[in-house]
Amino acid sequence: MRPTVHGRFARQVDFLRQQFLQEGQGCLPFTEILSAECFPRVFEKIERCWNDSIYTPLVTLWVFLGQVLSADHSCRVAVARLIAHRVAQGLKACSSRTGAYCTARKRLTEQFFSAVACLVGQKLDAQAKTQWLWKGRRVFLFDGSTVSMPDTPENRKAYPLVYNQKPGAGFPIARIGAIISLSCGAILNLGICRYAGKGQGEVSLLRRVLPAGV
C-alpha cells in the first residue's frame, strides 16, 4: 500500500474511532448497535452460565470495545468509563477495581466474538443499498490469514505447534478465514482452525464458512 493511501486510511480509522468514543459523556461505544434485543440467541446462550450482575456478557463486550478504541488501553480507564455510563443511566456506580472486569473479559470465548461479528456483518449486508451490489448480485469474497499467540500450555493444546517448532522456540499459530460482503465490506462468516494438519488448510476452512446453498 502506498504511503499516501496508508496515511489516508489511518486518518479515516482514527476519525471513526473518535466518533464512537465521543458519542456523549458517560456513554459506552456500541451500546445502541450491540444490544441483547439485536442478538438474543448469542447472549442468552452465554448468560446461562454467567453469574455476574454488573459485568454481564453484553456489558463486558461494551467495556472491552471501549478499551480497545481508547488511546489509553488500561483496564482502570475502561472501568472508569463503565462507572460514568452507569451513573448517566441512573444506576449505582460499581467498584473502580479492575479484577471483576478482567475476570469477565477472560470468560468471553472465541465463539462469542465470532458470533457477534458475523451477526453484525449479516445485518449490515441485509441493509446494503441496491446500487452497492455488483450487477444486482450479492458477491462474497473469501480471505484468510494466520495469527500467532503466546506459547502457553493452553494455547499449545488448542493449537499444537507445527512439526518444525519446538516448545519455547515458537508460537502456536491459528488459521483464520472469513466470508466478506463485497457490497459493504462486513464479515458474514468467520472460521478459526489449527494452522496445520488434516482438514486444516484454507480450502477446508472455506468449505466450512461458505453460506448454505452456495
Task: Give a description of the structure.
The protein is an alpha+beta fold. The protein folds into two domains: 3-108, no CATH class; 111-209, no CATH class. It is built from eight helices and three strands; from the N terminus they run ααααααβαββα. The protein has helices at residues 3-21, 40-47, 57-69, 75-88, 99-107, 110-126, 153-158, 202-209, and strands spanning 140-148, 173-181, 187-194. Strands 1-2-3 form a three-stranded antiparallel β-sheet. The radius of gyration is 20 Å and the shape is globular.
Q: What is the gyration radius calculated from CA atoms? A: 20 Å
Mean pLDDT: 81
Please give the number of β-strands: 3
Report how far the terminal alpha carbons are from each other: 32 Å
Helical percent range? 40-55%
Structural class: alpha+beta
Give the helix/strand layout.
Layout: H1 3-21, H2 40-47, H3 57-69, H4 75-88, H5 99-107, H6 110-126, E1 140-148, H7 153-158, E2 173-181, E3 187-194, H8 202-209
Antiparallel strand pairs: 1-2, 2-3
Helix pairs in contact: 3-4
